[in-house]
Amino acid sequence: MGRIYDHYTIANLPSEIAAKVVIDGRYSPELAKQLMDADPAARAMIEEALRHGASMAFRYVAVLPIILIFVFVAMFLYFRAKGGYRPIRLDEETGGSL
């Protein structure tokens, strides 16, 4: 998820700001904080890029629960077709002790 976040954050940054806050292809929050403190115009651009990166990461992750819904509904329908829940009576053992 961090990789998705970094990718879309970097892609949404202007190239001159990306050159200052990206190290080895990864977003550096420490460098971004220093730049935001020094330049208010850069702050707005970086914050917008961070919002975009967060929303894209959420879009990728939000798909997983939707897939699980379909899996659990399929399981429910399968077991329902097999007859559903049937209680099993466990009788006490008459012969020996534990």
Number of helices: 4
- The amount of beta strand, in percent, is under 5%
Q: Globular, elongated, flat, extended or rod-shaped: what is the shape? A: rod-shaped
Q: How many beta-strand segments?
A: 2
Q: Strands across the major sheet, in which order?
A: 1-2
Q: What would the average pLDDT be, to the nearest integer?
A: 87
Report the helical percentage: over 70%
Rounded to an integer, what's the Rg over CA atoms? Answer: 27 Å
List unreliable stretches of 5+ residues. none
Measure the end-to-end span.
51 Å
- How many structural domains in the coordinates? 1
Question: What's the short version?
Answer:
This protein has helices at residues 2-11, 15-21, 29-38, 40-81; strands at 22-23, 26-27. With 98 residues, the protein is mainly alpha-helical.
Folded structure, characterized:
This protein has helices spanning 2-11, 15-21, 29-38, 40-81, and strands spanning 22-23, 26-27. It is mainly alpha-helical. The chain has one domain (2-81). A two-stranded antiparallel sheet has the order 1-2. Strand 1 (22-23) and strand 2 form a beta hairpin. The radius of gyration is 27 Å and the shape is rod-shaped. The model has no long low-confidence stretch (mean pLDDT 87).
What does the secondary structure layout of this molecule look like, with pairings?
Blueprint: H1 2-11, H2 15-21, E1 22-23, E2 26-27, H3 29-38, H4 40-81
Antiparallel strand pairs: 1-2
Helix pairs in contact: 1-4, 3-4
Features of this protein?
4 helices; 4% strand; rod-shaped; 98 residues; 70% helix; mainly alpha; two-stranded antiparallel sheet; single chain
